[in-house]
Structure formats: structure tokens, C-alpha cells
Hints:
This protein is α/β, with parallel strands linked by helices. Helix content is 24%, strand content 29%.
Amino acid sequence: MNSVHPPVLVVGAGPVGLIAALTLLQNGIPVRIIEKDHHPRIGQRGAGMWPRSLEVYNFLDVSEVNSLGKSALPSRSYKPGTLEPLKGSSMFSHLEPTPAIPFHAPKLMGQQLLDVILRRHLEKFSCSVEMGTELRSFEQRDEGVTAILAKNGISETFDTKWVIGADGAKSIVRKQVGLTFLGESRDDTRLVTGDIRLTGVGLDRVHWHLFGNFNERGLSLRATDEIGEDGWQFYLYGRELDLTKIAESEELVFETIASLIPTEITFKKVVWMSDFRANIRMVNKFSEGRVFVAGDAAHVHSPTGGQGLNSGVQDAFNLGWKLALVQKGLADKSLLETYSAERLPVISEMLEVTTSILNKATTSGDLSAGRNPILYMLGINYRFSTIVLDEFITSAERKPINAYGVLDEGHLEAGDRAPDAPNMLQVGGAEPDTTTLFGLYRPWYHTMLVFAPSLADATPILGALEAYDKSVVRSAVVLPSSASVTPVTSPDLILVDRDGYAYSAYLVEAGQMKVFVIRPDGVIGAIVHGAEGVKKYFSKIFLDA
């Protein structure tokens, strides 16, 4: 799909750029993706995958992230100068699995492996990353963007319709388009992180080892076979360490780690490392005209809480379906303004959450201080968005914006994450089959769920849907387990909620009529009574709807 002049240029081929490209490709939009580095980056970097991001990978059909990602190891800290355990705990707060949350546990996967997986998915669309290709400058016009690219010293002029900057904290896209990047640099928080190969007497690979403390001098060691059978991701921190100097010398890394672990250690090599200072910054808006920023190009923050990469992935997923509809001529360009409008409050609150965790860690000296279920990101919502519609909430009941809320399964509004429901019996086809609601949701179409006491009750609403392009709107009738279903051949999906999981998760009474429109990014776009509400919602999304 590297055709002449694809309509979208993605700058930066880390996970955020790759997700943006994959979302667009699955929507049928050709993409050109460039990366200024000549070789794929190595290193674990931000390895934590929270449940909301695992849902994004699921919708994109990137099942390897969940299947190959490793569960978090229990952490163990030690009495100073010994290998005697001081306390054991989890680096993550526990969340009970429920039918509505299929991915309830965080997974760990290094960015090096994640990049490989995502590139393979791009290749299914004949799209590959152009390495060693740099964006030098660009110029916007009403009808498109002209970019100047450089590869091996040769300049190229490239005309495209849209540019997505996923080119990191030093983003050339952000700088060129003139977005501000206000915030603070925290000199009290420096880290050296990297991948290392070592073995230590009495150092097992079933715990996340924590030595020393976050304030004075400390070390975090997490075993990962992605690096090798003796591989670890390490973090060094604390004011007593000269971290800038340590980051320049493999020998100093060995010496520092050896001074913090009271056992015999055999060092093999440092595979990759970088020093890091906590920068807490974000853009004033996520787009300007035909140019967008996502991930670190739009926001940087403390690594405490592990929200950075996850937030960037969710930026890209929010933007992708909207840009696809506009490029196809199905939606007005104004839909793209909701990318910034929806993500700004989320990221602003995320910076507050991660900074609060950082402050608790620096105050207590405990790296796992301040962790809470908000980090699972399942409560992130767009209830405040101008394009969501909820006919069951009065304006008086609307609460202040709380975009980074904790998930409350007893409350559901338009703008919230759509829950899953397993064991749905699919009828009306040649053979009855079972599916999950998450099995229906995909990034290139809206899914309308019609909860109705019987098929006859749902018919008028299904009729109203015929006005919409079937390639971007699909529907399913969800019947209660008590409904009698006579065999019927229907163009629409008919599901029987045998165990009541869907009715429970979506808070629908058995005899009630309720319609949910699920956006391509897995967010509830609308909760309405019937056909008029569906039309009202889609009038905010589609041209001539």
C-alpha cells in the first residue's frame, strides 16, 4: 500500500505511529510512515500495558500483545545490605476479573518486541516503515500539506493530505506547527534505565527486585527473557548517585548495581541504556489544520504510573477512525476538532495522576507508593464530548469533567468505555454460534446494539439504519435469555444474552428498550431510546446523516 502520495504521512515509527498507521490501514486509508533512525530501536523502554490499551490491541486484532506479554512479577524489597526480604507486594493494584473486563491484568512487553509485532501487522497491508527518512519541514494549504523529506542526503518533496506527528518529545512536527509545550522539568527525579545481562547468586527471576530506596540510591531489576535468559530491565535512581555520569559508562553501571546488591554478580553486558529526567509537559492543542500530534510529541510526564506509552496508543486510536471518515468524504472536517477536545482533558488529568504518584514516591522513598486502580485506564471517558449523546442523563445530572475517573461498573454513560459480554448466542445464521461483544467491535465501523425484549420491538430501529453506509455502521439486536427466538434469516446480527452478562454490564432491564452506539474506538457514542436518537447521534458524525 506504499502507493504514490498516500493521503496520510505518519512521522515516527514507535508504537504510537505504528498504531496510528495500522488504524488507518484497517479503515482502508493508505499511509506512508517514516522514521529518521536507520535501525529499529532496541530496549524495553516503557513495557507496561494497562487493560484499556490491551482492549485497543484486541480491537485492532493484534492478539500477540496479550498472548506474548508477561504478567507482572510480585515485587520484593530487601533489608539494607542483605538479601533478606523486607516486604513483598505487587507493583500493580489488583483488579478482579469480570465478564465485562476480559483483560483485567496488566501485561509487560518491551517496546522492541512490540514494534516488531506492529510492523508485521502493517506488512499485511503492504505498508512498511521507511527507515532513515527524516521530515525536514512542511507547509500547509487548505487542500493539503507539502512535506520536505530527506534520506541519505537526498531531498524529496512529498504532497499529502494529512500529517500525524508521532515523533517523540523533541517532535519536529510539534515545533514546526507552533504548538506550545508548557510544563516543568523535575531535577529532583532522574533515572538511568536500560537492559542488562547479568546473573547473581540468590537472585531469582520470579520477583521484581527493589534495592535501596527512591530518594537516596536505589535499583529496580525486572527479569525479562526478551533480552535473554539472563536479561533484566533495570532502573537506577536516587540523589546520591551521579546518574548523568553513570549513563555514560557500562563499567559504572556494573559498579553501581554491584554496590546495591549484596551478592556475587557476574555481568555480561549492558544492551541499551539511557538517562531520564522527569519532564511534565503537554501541548495546548493536539492539532493545527491538517497536522496532528500524538504520544510523546503531545505530552511527556513522570514514568511513575506507566501511563505514557498507553496514553499515546489511545491518542492514535481516537484520531484514526475520525481521520478515516473525513478522508473518505463521509464526515465533515470539523469531526477532527474532537480529537483535541477529547484528549486534552484526559491527558491533563493523567499528568496530575502521574505527578501525584511521583511526589508520593519521592516523599516516601517507595517506588510502588501511590499506585491505584485508576492506572488501569478503564475509567477514562469522554462524557463531556460534544459528539456523544445520552438521552438517559438529564443536564442537571451531568457531573463535572472527570476524564480520568475510576471505573464504576454500576454507572454507565455515553462517553464511557463500552463493556464486554461473553457467551452471546448468535442466531439467525446457518448455524448458531457464540461470540463476545468485543468480538464485534472493530476500528472501521460503528456498532449499534439494540437491546430489545423481542425482535419485533427492534425492527423499526433497524429500518432507520438502512440510510447509513453498511461499511461504516453495523448493528446487532441483543435479546434477553428469556426471549423466544423463532429461526429467522436476518441481515442483522441477532444475539441472545444467555447468561445475562450484556444486560448486566450495560445496565439494561429485561423488558427495557435501549440502544447503544459503540464508536470504532470502543467508546459508547450514544445511549438512546430509539431511531430518532440514533439519527441525532449520527448527524454529529456523518455528512448528510
